[in-house]
Write a structure and sequence with these properties.
Elements: H1 5-14, H2 25-33, E1 39-44, E2 49-55, H3 65-79, E3 86-91, H4 102-107, H5 111-129, E4 134-139, E5 142-144, H6 146-151, E6 156-160, E7 164-166, H7 180-198, E8 202-203, H8 205-211, E9 216-218, H9 230-242, H10 246-261, H11 264-278, H12 282-289
Parallel strand pairs: 2-3, 3-4, 4-6, 5-7, 6-9
Antiparallel strand pairs: 1-2, 7-8
This protein binds propionyl Coenzyme A.
Length: 295
């Protein structure tokens, strides 16, 4: 499939690494492709909420090399989805993700390949976080290592009662490399981030909510009689933020993103530009015509 120049330009501007940093995406893709197994599945729904599933149940949804490539391709598809409003990232078979596939990690444990894999995943997860969609990580079971990092590449995190997020990197003689440490500091502050990484702390829903990592706790549908399936609960939770026309929801995400990532003057100018895309647009004119009251 050929990629349009506009799409390529948008992808590049969302990436952290490019050829200027000595990063060659095709080269690392070829290496990663050798470690296959599992998939990343994308379901775009008419509601404007997509579901991205980390699917490698026989390895507790660990990321094989080919799944890393899949992830990058799915993010590209979501970048090019004008009707999109929200995204739920979940794991298959009742667990979230056990990080990178340790078989692949062992095979590419040399310094150079490790750096390339790290840059590839930072690019993919940064683009995931920068999607103009409001995103939620739905954590069921365990989110370990790179799986914990993946949760921080979403706008929100919902945990099922009994689930765990754990940055186990220290136990592996590592630190996060997929951007998880930088994002964690933004989410919970440097004191809490130091505790979570330095202690490889098991974060349960209660601790997660207390430190601001977790935005909601869902009832375990298998343990609580009458509870809705988890994905349904997550969709209901997300829908309060995705009600309305896609251009408006996407603009909401973009102004928050620019405020989060850019220096103030630049964020203000970006906000003005984004404001310009919704001012006088159909949803704005419709709201003005309806003389709505906000009681
Ligand atoms: C970016 C840096 C990183 O992400 S480094 C990787 C960090 N992750 C890890 O170290 C996770 C290691 N795995 C575990 O701790 C356990 O397998 C967990 C996930 C707790 C599950 O335990 P338990 O319920 O007893 O199942 P199990 O150990 O029998 O696992 C089932 C099969 O899945 C596999 N598995 C699990 N995690 C990985 C992984 N990260 N990479 C490759 N394979 C993994 C296990 O080896 C096991 O496979 P098998 O059935 O023995 O063939």
């Amino acid at each position: 499939m050929s990629v349009s120049p506009r799409l390529l330009q948008r992808q590049r501007s969302s990436c952290v690494y490019s050829s200027i940093h000595g990063f060659n995406q095709d080269e690392i893709k070829e290496k990663l492709q050798a470690f296959h197994g599992g998939s990343i599945d994308l379901l775009k729904q008419d509601s404007g909420i997509a579901v991205l599933t980390i699917n490698n149940p026989s390895r507790m949804n660990a990321f094989s090399g080919s799944m890393m490539i899949d992830l990058e391709e799915r993010v590209s598809q979501l970048e090019n989805w004008p009707e999109g409003k929200g995204l739920i990232v979940q794991g298959a078979a009742e667990t979230f993700c056990s990080g990178s596939d340790l078989n692949a990690v062992r095979a590419i444990s040399n310094q150079q390949d490790g750096m390339k894999m790290c840059m590839f995943m930072q690019n993919a997860l940064t683009r995931l976080l920068r999607l103009p969609l409001i995103s939620v990580a739905l954590v069921e079971g365990r989110a370990l290592g790179g799986g914990a990092e993946l949760t921080t590449a979403c706008d929100f995190r919902l945990m099922e009662a009994g689930s765990v997020i754990q940055f186990v990197h220290k136990h592996m003689g590592l630190v996060p490399g997929w951007g998880g440490a930088a994002r964690l500091v933004h989410l919970v502050g440097s004191q809490n981030a130091l505790k979570l990484l330095g202690g490889a702390v098991k974060v349960d829903p209660e601790l997660g909510v207390n430190i601001g990592l977790v935005d909601g706790v869902l009832e375990g549908h298998q343990k609580t009689e009458g509870a809705a399936p988890l994905l349904q609960q997550a969709e209901n939770w997300l829908s309060r933020y995705t009600k309305g026309p896609a251009p408006v929801i996407q603009a909401v995400k973009k102004v928050v993103l620019s405020g989060r990532e850019l220096p103030l003057s630049e964020a203000l100018r970006t906000e003005k530009d984004i404001f310009g895309t919704v001012w006088g647009a159909p949803a704005n004119l419709e709201a003005l015509a309806s003389k709505s009251k906000h009681k």
